[in-house]
Amino acid sequence: MDKKFDEVELLTVAEVATKLRVSRMTVYRKVRSAELPAVHFGKSIRVPATAIEAYLLEAINTQDTGEEL
After folding, report:
1. Closest residue by Cα to residue 39 from 28, 31, 47
2. What are 12-33's pLDDT values in tens digits?
3. Lowest mean pLDDT among 2-6, 19-23, 59-63
């Protein structure tokens, strides 16, 4: 692993929803379907900021090729 744990930014579902301008339910669905990787701490869910970046890049690339997510 090339990153240290203190450098990993974990976001709450609400923070992810705000950044993506979607509802919290949409984020929960993406996590449940494994489209958006997440870390579970009991009932709490945290999404790495890098996972959001990767998700958006994949979505942009998929749109460019005409495929569906």
Report:
1. 47
2. 999 999 999 999 999 999 999 9
3. 2-6
Q: What six digits make up the tokens of 47?
A: 């999404």
For the record, the structure tokens of 7 come out as 């450098």
Beta bridge partners, 40, equal: 45
Distances (CA, A) of 49 to 36, 55, 68: 11, 10, 23
Give the span between the Cα atoms of 39 and 44, in whole angstroms. Answer: 8
- CB within 8 A of 59, min separation 6: which ones? 69
User: Which amino acid type is present at position 67?
Assistant: E
